[in-house]
Here is the input.
Amino acid sequence: MNYIILDLEWNQYSGDPAFSEPGLPFEIIEIGAVKLGDDREMVSEFSRLIRPKVYTRMHSITGRLIHLQMQELQSGDPFIDVYNDFREWCGPDPFFCTWGSQDLTELQRNMRYYELPPLSLGPIAYLDVQKLFAIAFESESKTRRNLEYAIDFLGINKDIPFHRAFSDAYYTALIMKRLPMNVLGHCSYDVFHLPIDRDHEIHTVFDDYYKYISRAFPDKNHALSDREVRSTKCYLCGASTQKQVKWFTTNNRHFIAVNRCDEHGLMKSKVRLRKSEDGRMYVVKTQKFIDNKEMLSLRRKRDHMKYQQGKNDIG
Ligand SMILES: [Zn+2]
Here is the structure.
């Protein structure tokens, strides 16, 4: 298996975004990538400019940020050619790594625009190195730093300028090499293509939590009444559990319940409703074990919501 550290630069319509090309809010203008072997040693590099077809004026922010001029892009090749070369360069079994969570989505959106065969028929597991950096080096794992911060933090030499696809992929690869082995298991999923059916849904058990990604449902009600979505079976042993805090919501997008497994204790389930690329609904459910204090605090929250709803019902 090869790690493909990928970074893209893209341009957008330089006017009211409402008038951008349907299906292509961001047009990729550069692909940069570094290939790492199993041992995370660099084995190969990829760097290509793309001649834009849709947005032929540089958006002011893009131009300022990435120091690329339209003139320069004219020396690039069409997206389809660059993508095909890139895909071949990746090899048969690429495992993508990116800084942040946007690149794989935009790559696939550009591919769909040009009617290229999909990278995958379902979600793609990948490593978000920005997230892994936080897990490894920040006290709060939800923190997100920019690439240059991480490079400085690790004392890596800044020998090439930032904000070009290849340089950002190269720096991301240097960070990737320094991540402790134990964080590499924290993969993310790109859900540009959702699971095609129930059998292909994602169920992943991490060190300290479980993640489920559903297929797409026509609407919220179908999603929320699905058996798997509502299931509060213990993710460690599969046993049925006893209700401690019934499903409740504070905002109609996130739903929480707490159950007790005889063997493993108090388990919190959290369902997040999300909109898919094609406007349908899907669910990301996470489950983790919590202590009694957190359970009681969630129970108070639920009681409060119930009280508020009761008040609204009456007047
Ligand atoms: Zn259990």
About this structure: The chain has two domains: 2-183, 196-314.
